[in-house]
Design a protein that fits this description.
The chain is built from no helices and 28 strands. The chain is mainly beta.
């Protein structure tokens, strides 16, 4: 029925050479949705990839009914024997917008948002002088008209200023670091209050491609436009570093950094606490709850309290309480749960029961 039926599309791991695959179709003889595929190891990471099934589709959003006053989600589904059984229910609130508007042309290029997502957008009707990319990082503009970006504008969720409190370092580098902006890769950077020390993520710290990506504690500020060696010193150490490919939101809350302490380098456990003001404004919340399926078609209920906030599979703390966001649902779906293997899922319905 209109207002309760949406198209479903598979979304497989597209990054770091991901090789997982899945398909979705409706079996006309049973009127069941059939989602089947295989989760494979991502060669670059040597970790399991993922497959998701989403409505209305990957990087798409719709105006779902207001779920305020409901208790949770009920998925009526099953799996065929011999495959994966652990999955996730997924619910997303609204964040980035990718929409067709007036005044935007067919020339264009990519717009990259702080959450790492990219959107094809048109120019602002100015023959490629600028792209319709709000709060994001615009790429090069191509003077070729393309239907998929004609009239399309991206409005990225903005991030407000935030504070990090770092402890466990040496040489006086403990203290409060304020959010200063985004680098070209859309990673946030921070500057120490009352000091000249910066925290930022560098994809290629010496510009040669020799060293791995890392969070850096440095004496020089990062460039807002450089894509490698952000402080231009052709060195990877700074006064400290933590190797990580994850740049979303900020450095980890607890990790072992390599720090220069009294002219000697040593591995040191560092804690970082995000203070009030660090919640990304308008950023899409991704809420997930685990479910275990069997070969029997049955209801699987998960109350809202069972859903936790995640980003790219990792728990995060910046999401608002889910029950305050139920009027802003933009996407729902299912996902695999971190295991490798084949799966064959049959889906009858997904609903949200009321009180």
């Amino acid at each position: 029925a209109q207002g309760t039926t949406w198209p479903w599309e598979p979304a497989n791991d597209p990054v770091m050479g991901g090789q997982s695959e899945s398909t979705f179709q409706v079996d006309s003889s049973t009127n069941l949705g059939v989602w089947k595929g295989e989760v494979k190891i991502v060669p670059f990471l040597q970790k399991p990839g993922f497959s998701n099934l989403q409505a209305p589709g990957r990087h798409k959003k719709d105006n779902f009914p207001d779920l305020t006053g409901t208790n949770g989600l009920v998925a009526r589904m099953k799996v065929e024997d011999g495959g994966l059984t652990n999955f996730k229910m997924i619910l997303m609130t609204k964040g980035n917008k990718h929409e067709r508007v007036g005044g935007v042309g067919a020339y264009g290029g990519w717009c990259k948002c702080p959450d790492g997502r990219r959107y094809q957008v048109g120019d602002n009707g100015d023959s490629c002088a600028s792209l319709a990319c709000i709060n994001g990082v615009p790429g090069d503009c191509e003077r070729i008209g393309r239907e998929n970006r004609s009239g399309m504008r991206a409005t990225c969720a903005r991030q407000v200023q935030s504070r990090l409190v770092m402890s466990g370092t040496c040489n006086g580098n403990d203290g409060v670091y304020e959010y200063g902006g985004l680098t070209a890769s859309t990673a946030p950077w921070f500057k120490k209050v009352g000091g000249s020390i910066w925290i930022y993520h560098d994809p290629d710290c010496d510009g040669t491609g020799t060293f791995s990506q890392r969070w850096v504690l440095a004496r020089n500020p990062p460039s807002a436009t450089a894509v490698k060696d952000l402080d231009g010193d052709r060195d990877c150490k700074g006064v400290g570093y933590y190797k990580s490919t994850n740049f979303i939101g900020g450095p980890p809350t607890s990790a072992t950094w390599n720090l220069e302490c009294n002219s000697l380098w040593k591995a040191t456990r560092v804690s970082i606490e995000a203070q009030a003001g660090g919640t990304p404004e308008g950023k899409e919340g991704v809420y997930e709850a685990d479910i275990t399926l069997t070969s029997k078609m049955e209801d699987h209920f998960r109350p809202w309290s069972a859903f936790s906030c995640t980003w790219r599979g990792q728990p995060v703390s910046w999401c608002p309480e889910l029950t305050t966001q139920l009027a802003q649902v933009g996407s729902v779906g299912f996902g695999t749960a971190g295991s490798v293997g084949k799966f064959d899922v049959k889906i009858e319905a997904l609903s949200a029961p009321g009180n």
